[in-house]
Amino acid sequence: MSHPLKAWTAALSLSLALAGSAAAEEPAPAYVPRAPLAKLDLHDGDTIVFLGDSITHQCLYTQYVEDYFYTRFPRMRLRLHNAGVGGSRAWDALHRFDRDVAAYQPKYVTVLLGMNDGRYAEYLDDVFTGYSTEMDRLLEKIDACGATAVLMTPTMFDARAKRMQPPGGFMGPKAVTFYNSTLAYYGAWLRDTASERGLGFVDMWGPLNETTLRERRKDPAFTLIKDSVHPDAPGQVVMAAAMIGDLGLPRIVSEMKFSLQEEQWTSTAEAAEITGLEGTADGLSFTSLERALPWVLPADAQPGVRLTDLGGEFGRQTLTVSGLPAGTYTVSIDGAEVTRATREELQTGLPLHDLAKTPQYQQAAHVAELNKQRNEGPVKTLRNEWVNFQQVKFLQSQVEKNPADEAEKQRLADAEKKLPGMEERVKAAEAAARAIEDDIFKNNQPRPHRFEIRPVGK
């Protein structure tokens, strides 16, 4: 006869085993794939925050994207906030997130981090693990504040540009050789993360590398990144174009088409209102009120405009005229000649976005100049305020790790002396930036223009 306690123990063991087996057999929740963000859904009053490191702190690609928004959506007042700080890693962005990101109540937060997180070395698994962990925390905070993240790959590290610099520096030959590949790996993880979480994604690494490779077939010394890390203005145009292309934003400013059939002029237009159409067998005139302005960038960005065919790809503003007799025609706007074109060129479609003499181009150029003043003035001032804040947080972490390091303590004390009054200075810079933006919105509203196409000499 078996002992009662042994029998009870055996029964209990069997029960637990069966329960464990049943639990193990329970089906896992069904995997539900998410669709990555296809395009930005923007409305008046929405805020976009550009979160990043020194490449964002440069206030260039962000400025060019702002120029796009100011001219493409002139009746939509978006809040555009640069939150880039030189030297930032995902860890640093977390420490300033509440005031420098969440406080602006963003709808979208673009994230350009990783260049510093990789530590300018060949791929190191523990370094990547730290980066991905901090990025996951950052994405959780973005989600918690009600915003949608747009993950952007780290930009290109130009090993050839680095090798063309004088010898020395903190990177060894192995790091120089492999760092661009390290950044590519980080970017691939970001792409997969955006896909899994249903977020936005922009490939910065690809267009910069592809443009560089294409241009080096003509000039082996070509670079978009003279210091190997921070893209120059033309490279930042490539970045801005990547953002507009990958975020599903409108590529057309306007399309105006006119046709002479049976001695009658007819018109069709996209994003423009045509009135007062008059014409003869060899010419016509009309008034056009477009909904947007061409995407025009400052002079130092023009090489990038040519590299990307920025107007043709992302700011088409075309005039097409069919039915004219063979010959060359003057195209005038508001009484001033802006170009001459053959019948064939007019039939193909005249790219107004390339004509610097048009009043629309000049108006957009003025908007770009105002925004350049905004970025080089109060926006850059605002970003510089956060440099010291970031330094304080870093030094605090160092002192916590090495409490006996008196030199580190002194550096922390010196940095902390600069913090008092920061909030007031931040608010003053924000107000100054808004004042210039108010001026931008007084100057970016489309105006009606009178076009006239006549044979040369008439």
From TrEMBL:
CDD domains: SGNH_hydrolase_like_2 (cd01834). It comes from the Bacteria. InterPro entries: Ester_Hydrolysis_Enzymes, SGNH_hydro, SGNH_hydro_sf. Residues 412-439 form a coiled coil. Keywords: Coiled coil, Hydrolase, Signal. GO terms for molecular function: hydrolase activity. This is SGNH/GDSL hydrolase family protein. Residues 50-236 form the SGNH hydrolase-type esterase domain. Residues 1-24 form the signal peptide.
